[in-house]
Specification:
By secondary structure, the chain is α+β, with helices and mostly antiparallel strands. The protein has helices spanning 7-19, 27-33, 37-42, 47-63, 89-92, 102-119, 122-133, 156-165, 237-251, 263-268, 286-295, 306-325, and strands at 25-26, 69-71, 84-86, 167-173, 182-194, 197-204, 209-214, 218-228, 253-258, 273-274, 279-282, 300-304. It is built from twelve helices and twelve strands. α1 packs across α7 and α11 (286-295) crosses α12 (306-325). It is globular, with a radius of gyration of 23 Å.
């Protein structure tokens, strides 16, 4: 039996393959050529399951900022049966106006050698060779693009595996303000990166309702059970999860003053709206947002709501107390 390729390695292979072609690859070429899909096909996984796996990988990579382009039939752009997919290198390369000193280049070359060794694995190189064997020209080098991947918690891999296999999971989850975590039995339907934090969306069997959990609040290991759920539940799950988080963020917003030219201005400015006094910033989770604001120190001052301001002050006071205790 062919070795099972981890989801993150399969997605890396997909990125490498889509960057190696100018005219794009059809879905069938991807499933036949890219390591991770190919092994699944060889073990007898049904084609419709492989296609859904590719669609989920494509949606997740796009959510991470990878510009996967869909090229349809020029005579009928809405007909995607023979659509091709590619990643335009011009949109994924580093900006041309960025320059580095010799010392900075030395550090980048060292870091790049580690990344290159990982992203140009034997399977990835074999995939590119197979693509070229199809008569499709590739662009080189395919290494050197700027990866934009959010760090993942340990629970990410087992949850993604459970989503692909339609398996129920169990894990301990610690909510803010509670002393002990609670055991959750959960049907995971989608993973999504929202406000630079990973969430898992699905059905909480105990509540018999849809829920979204932060991976950072999962305590300990995720147990993947032998109990399965209907594959159809995954259809559109990512869109439903994103819509739900956007709705929560739309209901919650903080008015903050931000020091110009700081890290806080750079990071918060991406999702902030200018107001007469400061900026309005939407947020999903008050406790997580308070952690973020406290990390900026004096670069940010919370005007309202008061409960958020108090939470930030509490965290800053705890930092001062912790450092004072060591004196």
């Amino acid at each position: 039996m062919a070795a099972r390729i981890p989801p993150e390695e399969r997605q890396t292979n997909l990125v490498v393959a889509l960057m190696a072609t100018e005219i794009g690859l059809t879905k069938q070429q991807i499933l036949d050529s890219v390591s991770g899909y190919r092994q699944r096909a060889e073990t007898g996984v049904r084609m419709d399951a492989l296609e859904k796996m590719f669609e989920r990988d494509k949606d997740e990579l796009r959510a991470l900022g990878v510009p996967i382009e869909t090229i349809g039939d020029s005579s009928d752009p809405n007909d995607l049966r023979e659509a091709r997919y590619r990643i335009p290198k011009a949109e994924y390369d580093l900006p041309e106006d960025i320059s580095f000193s010799p010392a900075e280049l030395a550090v980048l070359q060292l870091a790049g050698s580690v990344w290159s060794a990982e992203s140009a694995s034997a399977d990835a190189q074999a995939g590119v060779r197979k693509i070229r064997a199809l008569g499709i020209d590739g662009d080189e080098p395919i290494i050197g693009f700027a990866p934009r991947i959010t760090p993942r918690e340990n629970s990410f891999a087992p949850l993604q595996s459970a989503i692909e296999d339609c398996r129920v999971v169990a894990f301990d989850y610690l909510k803010p303000g509670e002393a002990m975590p609670r055991r959750r039995t959960f049907e995971p339907l989608a993973l999504l990166d929202f406000e630079a934090r990973w969430h898992v969306y699905g059905i909480d069997q105990d509540a018999d309702d849809e829920r979204t959990f932060l991976l950072s609040r999962i305590v300990g290991d995720v147990t993947v059970t032998r109990t399965s759920f209907a594959p159809g539940l995954r259809d559109g799950a990512g869109e439903r999860a994103l819509a739900g988080l956007n709705a929560v963020a739309a209901r919650n917003s903080a008015l903050v003053e931000i020091t110009p030219g700081t890290e806080a201005a750079l990071r918060l400015g991406r999702r902030a709206r200018a107001e007469k006094q400061g900026f309005s910033v939407p947020f999903v989770d008050l406790h997580i947002f308070a952690d973020e604001l406290a990390s900026y120190g004096p670069e940010v001052r919370v005007v309202e709501p008061a409960v958020l301001r108090d939470a930030v002050i509490e965290r800053l006071a705890a930092i001062v107390a912790a450092h004072g205790a060591g004196e």
